[in-house]
Design a protein that fits this description.
By secondary structure, the protein is of the alpha+beta class. Helix content is about 20%, strand content about 30%.
Length: about 100
């Protein structure tokens, strides 16, 4: 059963504590290329080449975020939206400001 983000700390989306943040992601599976950007509303927009079958797009999302943000995969959890395109992602090790700086580069 996937981790639903319950337990250690309760967070409101977009809020952060020391080295921990949550943010919303709009995932676009079956894209031509992998891409991460910040949308007009401040939501992360992520395109992945994997199809939305057998959690492959979600796994690809975690792998792409891990590589882009230089954090281990184990520090990234999908806490909401496991089976839809709009997701909430929890990230240990970085604050929201640090995430936005790394993605804007």
């Amino acid at each position: 059963m996937p981790d639903r983000g319950q337990g250690r700390r309760t967070q409101v989306l977009g809020k952060q504590a020391s080295g921990f943040c949550t943010f919303e992601v709009h995932l676009r599976p079956r894209a031509k290329k992998d891409k991460i950007s910040i949308g007009d509303s401040g939501m992360l927009e992520v395109s992945v080449t994997s199809p939305p079958v057998d959690d492959r797009a979600n796994d690809h999302l975690v792998k792409l975020l891990s590589k882009t943000l230089s954090v281990p995969r184990s520090s990234i959890r999908i806490i909401k939206g496991q089976h839809c395109r709009n997701k909430a992602v929890a990230l240990d090790g970085l604050t929201e400001v640090e995430v936005k700086k790394l993605i804007a580069v």
